[in-house]
Each structure stands twice: as C-alpha cells, then as structure tokens.
Records
---
Amino acid sequence: MQRTNLATRPFYNERLAAIIVGLLAVAVLVLTLANVAALASLSGRGAALRDETAEHDARAAALRREAQQARVSVDRDHLAQVAEAAHEANALIDGRTFSWTELFNRFEATLPAGVRITGVQPRRDDNQRFIVTVSVVAREVDEVDAFMEALEERGGFHDVLARREQVDEEGFIETSLSGVYVPTAAAPPATGGQP
C-alpha cells in the first residue's frame, strides 16, 4: 500500500511553520540591520582616519620645508667658529682637569737614575686620547730604552716611541719620547731610593 498526501495543504501544523518562518525572517532582518550599522560605523571611521592621515601628511610636509629652510639659513662660517671655540674651551677644561701630580708620580716611579726629564707636553689627539711628549736627556741609549719599557710595563702608557734623538756638545743623548697616556684615579706607588 502506498501512502501519499493528497491534501491541498500538506502541513498539518501551519502555526508552527509560520512561527519558524517569522523567526527566521526576524533573525535575517536583525543581522542585516547589524551589518548595515557596522558598515556605516566602519565607513565613518575610515573617513576619519583618511582625514587624520591627510593632516599628518600635510604637517610632515610643512616640517620638511621648515627643516630645509633651516639647513639653508645655517651660516657655515659661524658654525665653524662656534665649533672652534668649543674645541678651545674643551682643551682648557682638559688642561685644568689633567693631573700633573699623577703624571709626575708615574715618571718618578719609572725614571732610571741616568735619565733626566727636560720637558713634558700633554695634548689630546683626534680620538680624545692624551698624547704625552717627554723630552729626556741621558748618557746611554740603553737608559732611554729602559725608561720607555718601564713606562709601558708600569701601566698608564702604551705605544711609547722615540720621535727624535740627537747628541749634544757634551755627549748627552737628547730624546723626545711620545706615547698614549691613560690617567687613573690613583698614581702608582713610587719606588725611588728615598727612605
């Protein structure tokens, strides 16, 4: 036997079907309204962000123009004079803060008996290191070599080189030594023959 529904209305519970269709329609309508609201909100925020970006671009362009005008208006000669004055001021400050006592204590601790110091000249090089030039007089070249080695071994000096050597009328060797000096907070103890 074959069962078929020959009724003109196939649903026996039309109210349930209408409620389900109505709920689906309301859900679709609510979701559509939510999407439209989100789209409107995002469009408004996008427009605001575009306006803000345009403002920032305009401000950046104005700052670039101002920077270019500032670069053009800088007086290079005046700037060089200011830099030279700052260099001189730094040299004076270095001279005031240079510890002569520490330097001479190092010399006293390393100076051999046959060597005399006749001149000392500290200066700063381009790398801001202290370069100390020491003029010495000795009877023997070995004494000068011993002084150079002692300066490097006791610390505080490195790259000590003899720049100029000559013999005077009395047979003394006059030498100009130059080396990199690294000052420290405390001078090395003196090892001279004093009690």
---
Amino acid sequence: MDRIIDLDLGIQPEAAVSGAVVIQTESSTVLTFNAMRPTDEMSPYGGPYMTDAGTAIFRFKRCLATRFGYPNDEARGGILRFKDTVYGIYEVQNSSWIRDTIRDNRYRFPNTSDDYIGRHLVFAFHDSTFECLTDDFEYEVSTEPYATILGRIAERVCAE
C-alpha cells in the first residue's frame, strides 16, 4: 500500500501562489515553484513562520513518467492516498504507480527488475499536484528573476 512520507528539504511550496511550472522533454524534466523556508520563530499554530526563499528549481534524473494538475489542495484532503499531505514535497514508499509501471514494462521486457524505477515523488501545491517517477533529483533555490531562470533552463534543455 502506498505510504507517503515528508521529505524535509528545508523548503516547501508557497501556500498562496505556488506558481508551479513543469518543463518536460523526452530526456529532461524540470519543475519550478515559489519556495518558502522556515524561520526560527514559531507561530501560535504549531509550526515555524515561513519566509520567501525564492524559486525552487528541481531537475529530475531519468524521469520516466509525470502527472501534473489535479488534485488541488482542497481535493487532496478527500483522496485517501494523499491523506495528511499539505503544501510540501513527499516520497511515496511502496508505490502502486511504480509497481504498475514495472508490470506494464514487463509485457515487452520480461526481465525488468523490481528496482527499475527509483522513486515516486509528490509535490503538493495550492492549485495542483505534481508527481513523477524518477531515479533521483537535484535542486537549487534561486533569487534571480524568473526570466533569467527560465533562460538557463531553456539553454540546458536545448543543449541535451
């Protein structure tokens, strides 16, 4: 059964305007969003106050599949597999999506190993959810103007 765990990367999507953008080709997948980071000051609601961190830029290594869009934050609350998720970054352990994808791949490639796909990640935003099957990822947070960030991403994608 799918089990979602929180990945504490020191940032999370901004709750009000997450601004998620996915750029995907056959060989590259990049996700950007407005990121927040916790402060040392605790809020009266039981967690730290958050402050603007800039734009998070996630690059996925061997990203085999993605889903982007539905559900939004309100709908996620009623979907069992997203139980207890809020705006954040998660990993799905014992992923049924990974198992289904490997099973489907075995129709043509019967020797596909159980560890053929490394990770199932979930990014929970305000108006959408991004999920991907990937080997791994790297990320950075930038305070550059978004047009500059997008230009760097485009140069890298076009060079691949």
---
Amino acid sequence: MLKVEIKYCGGCNPYYDRVALVERIKSRLKGKAEFVSPSNDDVDLVLAVQGCQTACADLSPFQSQTIHIITRIADAEKFIERLLLPP
C-alpha cells in the first residue's frame, strides 16, 4: 500500500476547504493508500495541499521524495484517478 504524507500550506488565502478535500481523498483511496504522519520515515509520496495557485508552502524538506502538488480541486481528482488506475 502506498504511504502518503500530507503537507498543508499555511492557509493564508485558500480558495477551497483543504481539510475537507483531503478527507475526500482519503475516503476515495481507502485500501489503496495509507496516510501517515510527518514523523514516519517510510513515505512513498508527499501530497502538498496548497490552498491557491501561488503554492508558496516550503517543500524543501521533501526534496528527496516524490511530491504531488494540489492547488485546486481538479488536481485532487487527477491524483485520485492516477492512484486508482491498475498498475
């Protein structure tokens, strides 16, 4: 199962409810992805949930990891579809 860490932006100017969107992602990917805490060293992917197109959250701590950036709801749908496709 894919292990995913969530990184939120600071939320200074969000265009959508980031927390609600992540809950929807978690629900749709149940059984396909495990969402782990930032303290977990065994992470396959970082999901950077940015509230707007500026996407200004500092992702430098994750340079050695695969990062998928979400800046709008449509990005979340693409992420879900990608993970739901058969290998």
